[in-house]
Design brief:
It is globular and about 40 Å long. The chain is mainly β. It contains no helices and ten strands.
């Protein structure tokens, strides 16, 4: 399984970014994709997940109402739309295979992630 996160960058507070996670080598089945983030000096935290089948989503309270997770199964790509970004959203964002829900357990090695920097 390979996952490639992209779309990060520098944005001003209140701005938007859309992250992409390209997935290859996976039979989707009952699995999900989840986004996590790790800010400097902090532990990695769950952000959002989406099931491949059915599209059920889970969103962390800290980003609910601002972030949306979606999927394009035909393109094997998942997206994290981030609106009204805040400086505290600054982090490296990672995607990974997941069981769904809001847990921290993942099913593949961590990739490099994509850096999101929000300036005030």
């Amino acid at each position: 399984v390979q996952l490639q996160a992209s779309g990060g960058g520098l944005v001003q507070a209140g701005g938007s970014l859309r992250l992409s996670c390209a997935v290859s080598g996976l039979t989707f089945g009952n699995s999900a994709i989840a986004w996590f983030r790790q800010a400097p000096g902090k532990e990695r935290e769950f952000v959002a997940s989406i099931k491949f089948a059915g599209g059920h989503t889970n969103i962390a309270e800290s980003v609910k109402g601002r972030f949306t997770i979606s999927r394009d199964n035909a393109r094997n790509t998942m997206y994290l739309q981030m609106n009204n970004l805040k400086p505290e959203d600054t982090a490296v964002y990672y995607c990974n295979i997941h069981r769904g829900g809001a847990g921290m357990k993942v099913l593949a090695p961590w990739g490099q992630g994509t850096l999101v920097t929000v300036s005030s």
